[in-house]
Design brief:
Blueprint lengths: L7 E5 L6 H14 L13 E5 L5 H7 L5 E5 L16 H6 L4 E4 L2 H6 L4 H13 L3 E6 L3 H5 L3 H11 L1 H4 L8 E4 L13 H18 L2 H6 L1 E5 L7 H5 L6 E4 L6 H15 L2
Parallel strand pairs: 1-2, 1-8, 2-3, 3-4, 4-5, 5-6, 6-7, 7-8
Helix pairs in contact: 1-12, 7-9
This protein binds 1,3-dihydroxyacetonephosphate.
Length: 265
């Protein structure tokens, strides 16, 4: 099966793993994924690790000279200055990162992040050449009421003013239904495909057809080695944003290998 866009598997470690865990994780990746650590190879799937902010430098150093990207789980809404505790997009970019996760449902729901704050973070990401991974997705009540599509479209519409001028290759959108995050309960592959299609069509009608063809749409929510291919084989799903199952290098390698095997069919 051929993917029109470059597939991406993104690990969101959330608030997990310590220094020594990360050292052995990266060592295992090097041993298990030798192609990703050879300069002149070009792996068919992009791999991205998003550790906690304080370990971005460590991950960057351990994965140096590899084709594994690193990204943050957060960037500040502010460019810089007297904002105690905050880490700017410029600092994240300065550490060699290429991506940042924005608008994750845990940020929205546990930390009260508003659409305006999400938009300001997206703006900061663009200002410093980080690709935002914009997370959208409905809660269980909304899904049960059959209103998931209008819910996600509203989330996208709220960000239009920040996304209106973007170019191809500058955006990733992750569809993460909240009821499937960390619960072991998955969206069906058809649900993921339907929403990925809707997101792509939204980008096509509101941003541009060029960006619609290039935007990578990921599915996230209880993805693991045993089910990743179901999502990955959908035409509009370009990869996954993985939480729990990304915390072990072994399972990360297994997911990547399952997707690589699917690409060769
Ligand atoms: P789980 O894979 O643990 O369900 O988490 C998904 C997620 O929130 C990734 O951002």
């Amino acid at each position: 099966m051929m993917h029109e866009r470059r597939p991406l598997l993104a690990a969101n470690w959330k608030q997990n793993l310590l220094w020594h865990d990360i050292e052995s994780y990266c060592e295992d990746l090097r041993a298990g994924l030798p192609d990703y650590f050879v300069e002149d190879s070009e792996p068919a799937i992009d791999l991205l690790i998003c550790p906690p902010l304080c370990y971005l430098g460590l991950v960057g150093a351990l994965l140096e000279d590899s084709h594994v990207y690193s990204g943050s789980q957060l960037v500040s809404m502010e460019g810089g200055g007297a904002f105690t505790g905050e880490v700017s997009a410029q600092m994240v970019a300065d550490l060699g990162c290429d991506y940042t996760i924005i608008g994750h449902s845990e940020r929205r729901n546990l930390f009260g992040e508003t659409e305006e704050q999400i938009g300001r973070r997206i703006q900061q990401a663009f200002d410093h050449d980080l690709v935002p991974i914009l997370c959208v997705g409905e809660d269980l009540e909304t899904r049960r009421a059959g209103r998931e599509q209008s819910f996600v479209l509203r989330q996208l519409d709220a960000q239009l003013q920040y996304l209106g001028d973007i170019d191809a290759g500058e955006l990733v959108v992750a569809y993460e239904p909240i009821w499937a995050i960390g619960t072991g309960e998955n969206a069906s592959a058809e649900d993921a495909q339907q929403m990925a299609r809707l997101i792509r069509e939204w980008v096509g009608s509101k941003v541009s057809s060029k960006v619609s063809e290039s935007v990578q749409v990921l599915y996230g929510g209880s993805v693991k080695a045993g089910n990743i291919v179901e999502y990955f084989s959908q035409p509009d799903v370009d990869g996954a944003l993985i939480g729990g199952a990304s915390l072990s290098s072994e399972s990360m390698i297994a997911m990547l290998q399952a997707c690589l095997a699917q690409l060769r069919i």
